[in-house]
Amino acid sequence: MRSPRRCSRNGCPRQAVATLTYVYNESTAVVGPLAAFAEPHTYDLCEPHARSLTAPRGWDVVRHEGEFEPPPPTTDDLVALAEAVREAARPAPPRPDEIEGDPHTGPQTGRRGHLRVIPPSH
Ligand SMILES: [Zn+2]
User: Fold this and answer.
1) Which residues make beta-bridge pairs with 28?
2) How far is the CA of 89 from the centre of ligand 1 (A)?
3) Burial classification of residue 57, based on how many CB atoms lie within 10 Å of its CB (0-12 exposed, 13-18 middle, 19 or more buried)
4) How would DSSP label each residue in 38-73?
5) pTM
6) Ligand 1 mean position to 8 CA, how many Å?
7) What's the CA dihedral at 102, 105, 111, 112 to 10 degrees?
8) If both were cysteines, with which of 31, 33, 51, 59 could 63 make a disulfide (CB 3.0 to 4.6 Å apart)?
């Protein structure tokens, strides 16, 4: 479990709802929705601090317009979601009609291994 993310400003006890990212090569400070993962040059901010942020001299501020979203679901929910997405993205097992091969290329060898089709006896 991870503790709730708090504003990164010294002494600020409020919960973070936004992430400040410094884009150094564009001299831009971006205040956007709370990032899912902490990265270098990013700082979590509470809403008052996100709204009141001012850029350093020579920098621009790009601020997310509108309401900041509430914090994302807990880590457990995120893990469950990620696993569900991975499960959905996993290739489906081959269907029986694909294993049988198609009439143009003949039966595919290798998949069925030792299995053989035994014609019915009369
Ligand atoms: Zn704050």
Assistant:
1) 23, 60
2) 39
3) exposed
4) --TTEEEE-HHHHHH--PPTT-EEEE--SPPPPPPP
5) 0.53
6) 7
7) 70
8) 31
Q: Which pLDDT score is estimated for 103? A: 60
Close Cβ partners of 116 (under 8 Å, ≥ 6 residues apart): none
Q: Which residues sit with Cβ closer than 5 angstroms to ligand 1, an ion?
A: 7, 9, 12, 14, 46, 49
- CA R_g for the chain: 27
Q: What is the whole-number distance in angstroms between the Cα of residue 110 and the centre of ligand 1?
A: 62
Q: What is the dihedral of CA 28, 32, 35, 38, to 10 degrees?
A: 30
Q: How far is CA 23 from the centre of its chain?
A: 21
43-92 pLDDT, tens per residue?
A: 999 999 999 998 889 999 999 887 876 665 566 676 777 777 777 777 77
